[in-house]
Write a structure and sequence with these properties.
Length: 431
C-alpha cells in the first residue's frame, strides 16, 4: 500500500523545486522547458527527494523504503504532479471501463467484462477531491475551465482521452464520472473483431464514408457512439481536411497525424466569471464552414447547434459525421426536432423534417447490453441502420439493416444509393 501522506508531502517538495528552477531559467534568460523536458526534470527531482528521504530514515534508525515502495512512491508523486493523482492507477488499468465517484471514499469501477467493484478512496477528503478536479480543469482542453460554487458543473477530456464529468454543490458530496477512452486509435477492423459490427455492416459503412454520405450515429449513454465515430473517421482519406467541433475535446483525431495530418479541433468555450467570452457550439459550427473543411465532424449534438449543422450538411459539406443520444434509429428524427425547437431559429417540426431529409443520409444506431447476470459480458453492437428517403410531412426512412437473431444488424431492405456505394466496393446479395 502506498503512503499517500508521503506522496502529498513529496509532491509539494518536488513542485517547489520545479517552480524554483523555472524562476531561475527565466532570470537567466533561458527558454522555458517543454512539457516533456519538465517531466524528465521532475523525474530527476523525484529520485533526489526519495534518496534524501531514505538517508533521513537511516539517520533516524528507521528502515528506508524498499525498491518496490520507492517505485510506487515515485509513480504516485509523478501522477500527483502531471497526472490525476490517485485516479492514475485506475486510468492505467486497460480493463477499467468507467469510474463513478460519489465523494472521495465512494469509488465504483465498472470493467470491460461488465463486472463492477468498489475501490479505495481517491482523496483524503472531498475538498482534496475538488482541488484535484480544479487542477485538471485548469490544464485540460484549450482553455481553463472553472469548477467552483459559481460553476458547479464541469466536462473535460483527461490527458489519456477519457471523458470526465463532475458536479458539486448541487449534490450532497462532489460527484464525478469518468468514461474511459479505451480505444484511442480504432479502426473498422477492430470493431468487426470485437463483434460491434458485422463484416456486412463494416463494408457498408466504409463505402458510405467513401461516398461522402452524411452519417448520424445514435445510441444511449456509453453505448460506444464516439468509438464508432472515430473508426468511421479513420476511413476518411488522409488527404482531406477535417474540422471537429466538440463541447470538450474528446475525439482526438488531431493526435494521430499519420492518419489525419490536416485536422483543426474546435472546443466550445464557456463564459468567464462575469458571464462573458462564451463561444457556443453553434458559433463554432458556423466558423468551421469558413475554414475550408473537407468534412465537418460534430462530436455530440445536444442543443441548438443541430440547425447550423444540418444547414452545413445541405450546403455542400458532404461526408459529415456526428453523434446524438437516442433510444432507437427512428427516435433520432424526433430528438432532432426537439433540439431545433429550442434553437434561436425556432424551426417548426415540418421545417425541421425537411431539413433532416435534405441533410442526413443514414442513421446508425448502436446499443449496449449487459448480460453479465446471465453469465455473459457487456456487449456493444450496431443493431440498426436507417436510410433517409425524403419527406412527406414527416421524415421518410427505411431500415436497411435491422436487428438479427442476436441483436446485431443484418441486411433488411435494399439501399436506394446502392450504385454509389458499389462504386466504393460495397455489394450485397445482388442489391
Amino acid at each position: 500500500m502506498i503512503d499517500h501522506s508521503l506522496v502529498k508531502r513529496f509532491r509539494q517538495e518536488v513542485g517547489d523545486r520545479l517552480a524554483h528552477q523555472r524562476r531561475l531559467d527565466q532570470a537567466n534568460g533561458l527558454p522555458a522547458m517543454t512539457g516533456e523536458d519538465e517531466r524528465q526534470f521532475a523525474r530527476a527531482l523525484i529520485s533526489q527527494v526519495l534518496e534524501e528521504h531514505a538517508r533521513s530514515e537511516i539517520g533516524l534508525g528507521r528502515t528506508p523504503p524498499t525498491a518496490e515502495e520507492e517505485e510506487a512512491l515515485a509513480a504516485g508523486i509523478h501522477a500527483a504532479l502531471f497526472g490525476v493523482g490517485r485516479l492514475q492507477p485506475l486510468l492505467d488499468d486497460a480493463q477499467v471501463e468507467n469510474i463513478d465517484i460519489n465523494g472521495c471514499d465512494r469509488v465504483f469501477v465498472s470493467y470491460a467484462d461488465g463486472q463492477e467493484a468498489m475501490q479505495d478512496p481517491v482523496a483524503d477528503s472531498d475538498d482534496e477531491l475538488i482541488e484535484l478536479i480544479q487542477i485538471l480543469a485548469a490544464y485540460s482542453g484549450l482553455s481553463s475551465r472553472p469548477f467552483d460554487t459559481a460553476n458547479p458543473q464541469l466536462d473535460l477530456r483527461l490527458p489519456d482521452g477519457s471523458r470526465l464529468s463532475a458536479v458539486m454543490d448541487v449534490t450532497v458530496r462532489p460527484a464525478i464520472s469518468i468514461r474511459r477512452a479505451r480505444l484511442g486509435k480504432v479502426f473498422m477492423s477492430d470493431l468487426m473483431g470485437n463483434g460491434t459490427i458485422s463484416p456486412d455492416v463494416g463494408r457498408f459503412l466504409s463505402a458510405a464514408v467513401a461516398a461522402r454520405k452524411n452519417l448520424m450515429i445514435a445510441g444511449s449513454t456509453n453505448a460506444g457512439k464516439t468509438t464508432l465515430l472515430r473508426a468511421l473517421a479513420n476511413e476518411i482519406p488522409s488527404g482531406e481536411r477535417l474540422i471537429t467541433v466538440e463541447r470538450a475535446l474528446e475525439l482526438g483525431l488531431d493526435q494521430f497525424p499519420e492518419l489525419h495530418p490536416n485536422v483543426v479541433a474546435f472546443e466550445q468555450r464557456l463564459p468567464n466569471s462575469e458571464g462573458e467570452g462564451e463561444i457556443s457550439m453553434a458559433e463554432l459550427v458556423r466558423r468551421s464552414l469558413r475554414m475550408n473543411p473537407s468534412r465537418v465532424i460534430v462530436g455530440e449534438v445536444l442543443g441548438d447547434e443541430i440547425v447550423t449543422m444540418l444547414n452545413a450538411m445541405t450546403q455542400g459539406n458532404d461526408g459529415s459525421l456526428s453523434t446524438i443520444h437516442a433510444n432507437s434509429s427512428m427516435e433520432v428524427f424526433n430528438r432532432i426536432s426537439t433540439y431545433a425547437l429550442q434553437a434561436s431559429e425556432r424551426l417548426p417540426i415540418d421545417a425541421t423534417h425537411m431539413l433532416i431529409a435534405g441533410a442526413i443520409d443514414f442513421v446508425v444506431f448502436i446499443e449496449k447490453r449487459n448480460d453479465y447476470h446471465l453469465g455473459g459480458t457487456l456487449r456493444r453492437y450496431v443493431s440498426s441502420i436507417r436510410e433517409v428517403n425524403g419527406c412527406d410531412g414527416r421524415v421518410l426512412s427505411s431500415e436497411v439493416f435491422a436487428p438479427g437473431p442476436d441483436g446485431t444488424a443484418v441486411p433488411h431492405a435494399p439501399v436506394s444509393c446502392l450504385e454509389e456505394l458499389a462504386a466504393h466496393g460495397y455489394t450485397l446479395g445482388g442489391w
